[in-house]
Amino acid sequence: MTERLFVTGVIILIFATLVSGCVETEDEKAEAVRIALENTTVREYLSGEYEIQDVYYGTLTSASGGVERSERLPVVTIDAGDVRLWVFVDLEKEAVVAVAKNYKRTPAIVLPATQPGSTPPGGEAPTVPVPTPTGTHR
Amino acid sequence: MNGKVGVWAVSVLLAMLLVSAVVAVPGAAEQYESADPVVIRECLPAKEEVEKLNEFESPVAILIDELKSKNYTTEDITRELAKQGYGWDPKTGACWKGTPPSSEEMKIIQKIRGSDYSPFDAEVGTRALEQALQMMYVTNNNVYRGINTYMKPSQMIVEQEGTYQHVITTHVGRKPNPSTECWTEVGVARSVPDNVKQRFTYDNDEGGWQFHGETDSSTYRNYIIYVTDTYESSGYLYHIWIDGEWVRSGHLAFRENDVNYANEIWSDESVPAWTDDSGIAVYQDGFLYQGNGAVWWNAEVPTQWFSSPVPCPIRESHSIVGNAWKYFTWI
Question: Which of A15, A80, B60, B232 would give a disulfide with A50, using CB separation of 3.0 to 4.6 Å?
Answer without folding.
Answer: A80
